[in-house]
Write a structure and sequence with these properties.
The complex is a heterodimer of chains A (454) and B (460). Chain A is an alpha/beta fold. Chain A is 43% helix and 15% strand. In chain A, α11 runs antiparallel to α12 and α12 (284-312) runs parallel beside α17. Classes of the chains: A alpha/beta (454), B alpha/beta (460).
Chain lengths: 454, 460
């Protein structure tokens, strides 16, 4: 077991050893090789999928490059969001200010593309050099009659979580700005789903079969006009709880829209989400339709699950994802495949989520907040994991250790939400865990647990 | 996705669309990985470090280790000194690197952190253990590009480590040692450059050298500091080289000048050895500096020339568009010219008017659109106005290749959607054989695809 950074000791606990009360929601230790990103990143991933808006990154070029088309947030129509727009600030702007550059860029973009709205992301140095982003946005908005929304996402404000809040604020400024009198009662908004690999289309289809209409996607395959009338919906469904719970709470306060925190990953949670919707609308016929939908969908995928389970039974999994809420769904989904979770961690989980996670996991599971490669490698070896579920920076760690991998982040290429998503997940996990390559790269071939090699 | 690009080209003053460059710090991080047992350290917000690690990981398919100062609101107001001091403490107690290579970011540059002063403070507080090193490079994201960041970190390696020589007469030279600054290239290229230079009988000090760091074999272990990288001892002994060969004006020149300034080692500024001409010049200088051109090297060259002779009719007159980093693009432009192709659009995102001058020199009367500090929106517009038969560039070209239905060969950095570049070189004669083959594959696959049935032939 690697030495933990002393300051992080309370950010790791083991279930069943009487330890509770993990420390989380704190700044990363300076000098650690954290897997976390920044505030800008948080804002950008939440707002990015709004496809008929221009997204202008105000700052030096890097922030725009690293977030250019890296996420398969699919659109069924316009694809403006996939282009990379930046003010590309240079030294002279740092000295004399970047406001003119920003204004000229906005004018050019709006005149060329006639977007429904524009989002302007303030990066680290924008505040430091004193640009008044809000004022420029206001002027341009008045001139062209479209919303031009400043997103206060300076990276140094913290981790992605602060960025989620800035994004929610930006969304909140759009919501309620259009007439919603035509929105019916059995309607929902989908919050915190980014339509990776077309997932939101699966969920929308389920809801349609139940008799529920979606008003606005926030934000996967999102459209500005839908978002502007999102306040008319009867219910908010909050999927990626870390990013949009705050928005749901604000909408509840401002417009009286109730919300439910749900998850579309795994059979249990997916079914629970649909039943929650049906129960909310108190419509017996809808409930009946939901029952039929759920049993039909499950019947269809069960053979796949059973087949995969035969190969996966007893295998061990490690999870390190963005938020702890997703980890909870994954633990359950892995159980369905007969797999045991030995590590469950996240970059930015909340205390509530971690507490539930701790209860849910088997004794001896490591629960970790804001981890780093050295720790993760050690946990993988120590827990003799066969599978690692994570994102781009975790993949090569797993592969170097001979551990199978499933991307449950930006880079997933198959939809993992919904019942069909569970079948995709099962297939993908099996494909990696049972790949013939592992005969040449045996897992945990060293009997000694992996330690930090320095 | 690119149906948003209008054909009509209008002057743009402010906006950058679909960039053909990124910021300095990632170049500095990549260069620092080429020092043995070095931990790159990003002095800024934690997102910078995370982005750079992710991006490098996508290109190399390898874990990339780097630490960050994880700036807070307070640091952005009162300066990053406490973060850097704490960060260095954490790094040395937890990760035990031999070298920490600090690079700055737009934020730490704008608030004016003085890195040498803070490192001095770290020394006073005994945060830096005996025999360990902290070096730094200033890499403001709003100046130059990732290539400049790479160059700045290479220069810092010489500044911090090369032993100073008081006068040229005091210099002790190892007549077999040649210093090579390989440029912002893949580990496969660095390996190949070393192989070529060693084949002439010289002893190579290459800095940086990321081979053995970001191209490691699967061993069942995650090794925090893999075995590759230039050692501190090698860097200290740069002054013993007969010359420093800088491969690429943008990425390598400053480092070679620095070694010359410190230790009177003559510099040789060359193009990146991609293609026949540039590789010939690379070997010519190696010969001039004491190497021997062996029969084996002549055979390699002959095989490359033979391949081109066999296939020149397929290349002749084909229009090609080339974009990417300046050293790459200029070398590729020359190679394409030598293959009989016509590079009609040549573009780099990195600033520097020398790029235009060089591209014009290479192409002479055949020069078409040439631009430095350009972006892929411009490249797309050019191609819409004058279509090409082949597109050469990094992964970001794939949108254009699809929109205009052009054969596309991935070369340069980053390549986010294919593998092989880390292991198989583009430089040298062997690299040119591979590159020409891939270009030919792309051209002939297209010809086969588009040929009417009666002209679809078995033998080409």
């Amino acid at each position: 077991m690697t030495e933990l950074l002393a300051a992080r000791a309370r950010q790791v606990i083991r279930t069943g050893e009487g330890e509770t009360g993990i420390e989380c929601e704190k700044q990363s230790v300076a000098g650690s090789v954290s897997q976390r990103a920044c505030t800008f990143c948080g804002s950008r991933v939440v707002l990015y999928p709004i496809a008929d808006a221009v997204h202008l990154v105000h700052g030096p070029i890097g922030c725009a490059v690293y977030t250019w088309d890296i996420r398969g947030a699919l659109s069924s129509g316009p694809e403006l969001h996939r282009l990379s727009f930046s003010t590309d600030l240079r030294e002279r702007h740092v000295v004399f200010g970047g406001e003119q550059q920003l204004e000229a860029s906005l004018v050019e973009l709006i005149e060329r593309h006639h977007p429904k709205a524009a989002f302007v992301y303030a990066t680290c140095i924008v505040g430091v050099i004193g640009d008044d982003v809000s004022a420029i946005c206001r002027q341009v908005s008045e001139r062209y009659g479209i919303p031009v929304v400043p997103v206060q996402s300076e990276g140094f404000q913290g981790s992605k979580k602060q960025g989620y809040d800035a994004a929610c604020e930006a969304l909140m400024s759009l919501i309620g700005t259009a007439d919603a009198s035509d929105v019916g009662p059995h309607t929902v908004n989908l919050l915190g789903d980014f339509n990776l690999a077309g997932e939101i289309w699966i969920i929308t289809e389920y809801l349609k079969k139940m008799g529920v209409e979606v008003v606005a996607n926030l934000t996967g395959d999102g459209r500005v006009d839908d978002i502007r009338k999102a306040h008319g919906a009867g219910l908010n469904l909050v999927q990626c709880s870390g990013s949009t719970t705050r928005l749901a709470m604000q909408m509840q306060a401002a417009y009286g829209i109730p919300f439910k925190k749900i998850s579309y990953f795994g059979i249990d949670d997916m079914a629970a989400a649909l039943y929650a919707v049906a129960e909310h609308f108190k419509d017996p016929e809808m409930l009946q339709r939901t029952r039929e939908l759920v049993s039909a969908e499950i019947a269809e995928i069960l053979p796949v699950i059973e087949e995969c389970r035969r190969d996966l039974e007893g295998k061990r999994a490690a999870i390190y994802v963005g938020g702890a809420f997703k980890a909870i769904s994954l633990v359950k989904a892995l159980r369905l495949l007969g797999m045991k979770t030995v590590l469950a961690g996240s970059q930015t989980g909340t205390r509530d989520d971690y507490e539930y996670l701790t209860e849910l996991c088997d004794p001896g599971t490591v629960i970790v907040d804001d981890s780093n490669p050295a720790e993760l490698s050690a946990f993988l070896s120590e827990g003799k994991a066969d599978l690692f579920i994570g994102g781009v920076k975790e993949r090569p760690l797993a592969y170097k250790l001979g551990v199978a991998f499933c991307d449950h982040n930006h880079e997933r290429k198959l939809p993992l939400e919904g019942f069909i998503g569970m079948a995709n997940f099962a297939r993908e996990v099996r494909a990696s865990v049972c790949s013939p390559v592992w005969q040449f790269a045996p897992r945990h071939q060293n009997s000694e647990p992996q330690t930090l090699e320095v | 996705m690119l149906n948003h690009t209008p054909t009509e080209i209008a002057e743009r003053s402010a906006l950058r669309i679909n960039p053909a460059k990124t910021c300095q710090p990632i170049g500095a991080m990549y260069a620092a990985l080429g020092i043995h047992r070095c931990l790159p350290y990003s002095h800024g917000s934690q997102g910078c470090c995370s982005y750079h690690r992710s991006h490098l990981t996508r290109h190399f398919k390898e874990p990339v280790m780097a630490a960050t100062s994880a700036f807070t609101e307070g640091a952005s107001v009162f300066g990053g000194q406490p973060n850097l001091l704490e960060g260095l403490k954490t790094v040395f107690t937890t990760y035990s690197p031999d070298v920490v290579a600090v690079h700055t970011t737009c934020l730490s540059e704008t608030i004016g952190d003085d890195i040498p002063q803070i490192v001095g403070e770290a020394k006073r507080q005994e945060i830096i253990p005996e025999g360990k090193y902290v070096i730094h490079a200033n890499t403001p994201s709003y100046v130059g590009s990732h290539v400049v960041g790479f160059a700045n970190m290479c220069t810092s390696m010489a500044t911090y480590f090369a032993k100073e020589v008081k006068s040229p007469r005091r210099r002790t030279t190892d007549k077999h040692q040649i210093n090579i600054v390989p440029g912002f290239v893949d580990p496969s290229d660095m390996r190949e450059l070393r192989r070529l230079a060693e084949a002439t009988g010289l002893k190579v000090t290459m800095f940086p050298d990321t081979s053995g760091v970001v191209d490691t074999p699967q061993t069942g272990k995650h090794i925090f500091y893999p075995e590759g990288g230039t050692t501190v001892t090698e860097l200290q002994n740069l002054g013993r080289g007969v010359a420093t060969m800088a491969l690429g004006w943008w990425a390598s020149r400053d480092a070679a000048i620095e070694v010359e300034k410190k230790a009177y080692v003559p510099r040789e500024i060359l193009d990146l050895p991609i293609g026949i001409g540039a590789t010939d010049r690379f070997l010519k200088i190696l010969k001039f500096r004491g190497g021997e051109i062996t029969k084996e090297l002549e055979r390699e060259r002959g095989q490359l020339v033979d391949l081109i002779v066999d296939t020149q009719q397929h290349f002749h007159g084909k229009k090609v568009a080339i974009f990417g980093d300046p050293d790459h693009v200029l070398a590729l432009t020359e190679f394409c010219r030598d293959l009989g192709m016509v590079p009609v659009h040549v573009l780099t995102g990195t600033p520097g008017k020398r790029f235009g001058e060089e591209a014009n020199r290479i192409l002479g009367a055949k020069a078409g659109n040439i631009k430095f500090e350009g972006d892929l929106f411009t490249m797309h517009q050019w191609i819409k106005n004058e279509p090409v038969d082949l597109l050469l560039g990094n992964t970001y070209g794939k949108h254009i290749a699809r929109a205009q239905d052009i054969p596309f060969v991935r070369v340069g950095w980053p390549i986010l959607d294919r593998v092989g570049h880390s292991l198989m070189p583009t430089v040298g004669y062997a690299g040119a054989i591979r590159l020409a083959s891939r270009m030919l594959d792309a051209l002939l696959d297209r010809r086969d695809r588009d040929a009417p049935e009666h002209q679809f032939e078995l033998v080409l």
